[in-house]
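Project outcomes to date are best conveyed with an example. Our students and postdoctoral researchers have been running inverse folding experiments weekly, and each run begins with a structure described purely in C-alpha cells. The record below, which covers 288 residues, was selected by the lab manager from last quarter's runs and is presented without edits.
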C-alpha cells in the first residue's frame, strides 16, 4: 500500500480517520469551514487565498507561502473566507520515529507552528510540489509517495531550528516567546522574499509588528545574527549562485541582488568569501 492522493473540492463536516501510509490532499475550496482530524502529524500549505485554524482554543492564520505544522491531537476547524488552494499532507501514523524527540507534546514548540516556505529546504520542496500539483492535479498519485518520503526525512530540521530559536529568545513566558517567534518568522520570510534589493529595518519591523529596537534585538537572539547581516548573507549567496551559473556579467548580478553597482557587490563579496567575485568564479571553474 502507498500514500493515498485525493482532490478536495468541498468542505467536510466530519474528520477523516487515521492513514497508516500517509495521505496527500490537494485542496481547491470555496469559502467555508471543515472539521479536521489529527490522528498523526500533518502539514498544511497555502498556495493561494488564506486559511484560519481553530486549534485547542487558539486561532492561527496561514497565508500564501506559509505552511502549518500540526502535531497529533484533538480535532480542529479550518476556515477560509474566500477561495483557496493548497496541500494537506498527513504523515503516516507509523512514521513517528522520523520526528524529533518530544513530538506530540513538545514543551517548546507547542502543537501548531506556522513556517515560511522560503526559509527551509522543506518549505521550498512543499511549495514546488504544491505548484506542480495545482498546475496538473493528475500528477498527484504519481508523486504522493515521493513527497511524503521527503517530508518524513526533512521535517526534523525546521522543527529543531524553530525550537532553538524560541529557546534563544529572552522572555520569561513561553507564550510570549512563541508569539515573538511567529512575528520574527514573518520578518524572516520578508527577507527571503526580497533578496533582489536592500531592505530597511523599518520595513521588517512593520512586517513583524515590532519596534525597530525590539526586532533587531529579538532577531539576533533567535537566529544568531542581525536581520541586516542575515539578509546580506542571503543576497550574497544568491550572487554566488548566479555567478556559478554563468551567463551574466558582474554588473547584472549586482543589479539582481540589490547592489548599486559591481563595485559595491565586489566589496561585500570579498568581505564574506575572502576573494573577489572574479577570483571566486575562476576557482569554481577550475574545480569543475
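After processing, the design step wrote out the following sequence:
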Amino acid at each position: 500500500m502507498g500514500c493515498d492522493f485525493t482532490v478536495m473540492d468541498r468542505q467536510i463536516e466530519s474528520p477523516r480517520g487515521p492513514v497508516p501510509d500517509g495521505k496527500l490532499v490537494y485542496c481547491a475550496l470555496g469559502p467555508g469551514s471543515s472539521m479536521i482530524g489529527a490522528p498523526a502529524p500533518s502539514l498544511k500549505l497555502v498556495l493561494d487565498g488564506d486559511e484560519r485554524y481553530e486549534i485547542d482554543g487558539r486561532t492561527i492564520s496561514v497565508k500564501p507561502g506559509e505552511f502549518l505544522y500540526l502535531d497529533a491531537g484533538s480535532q480542529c476547524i479550518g476556515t477560509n473566507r474566500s477561495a483557496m488552494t493548497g496541500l494537506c499532507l498527513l504523515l503516516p501514523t507509523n512514521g513517528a520515529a522520523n520526528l524529533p524527540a518530544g513530538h506530540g507534546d513538545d514543551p517548546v514548540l507547542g502543537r501548531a507552528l506556522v513556517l515560511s516556505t522560503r526559509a527551509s529546504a522543506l518549505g521550498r520542496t512543499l511549495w514546488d510540489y504544491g505548484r506542480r500539483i495545482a498546475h496538473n492535479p493528475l500528477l498527484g498519485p504519481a508523486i504522493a509517495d515521493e513527497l511524503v518520503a521527503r517530508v518524513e526525512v526533512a521535517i526534523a530540521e525546521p522543527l529543531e531550528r524553530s525550537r532553538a530559536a524560541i529557546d534563544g529568545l529572552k522572555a520569561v513566558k513561553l507564550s510570549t516567546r512563541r508569539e515573538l517567534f511567529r512575528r520574527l518568522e514573518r520578518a524572516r520570510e520578508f527577507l527571503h522574499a526580497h533578496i533582489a534589493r536592500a531592505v530597511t529595518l523599518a520595513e521588517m519591523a512593520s512586517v513583524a509588528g515590532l519596534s525597530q529596537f525590539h526586532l533587531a534585538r529579538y532577531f539576533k537572539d533567535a537566529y544568531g545574527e542581525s536581520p541586516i547581516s542575515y539578509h546580506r548573507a542571503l543576497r550574497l549567496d544568491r550572487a554566488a549562485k548566479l555567478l556559478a551559473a554563468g551567463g551574466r556579467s558582474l554588473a547584472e548580478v549586482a543589479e539582481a541582488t540589490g547592489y548599486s553597482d559591481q563595485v559595491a557587490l565586489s566589496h561585500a563579496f570579498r568581505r564574506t568569501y575572502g576573494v573577489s567575485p572574479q577570483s571566486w568564479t575562476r576557482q569554481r571553474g577550475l574545480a569543475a
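The radius of gyration is 21 Å. The first strand starts at residue 4 and ends at 8. The training component of this project remains on track.
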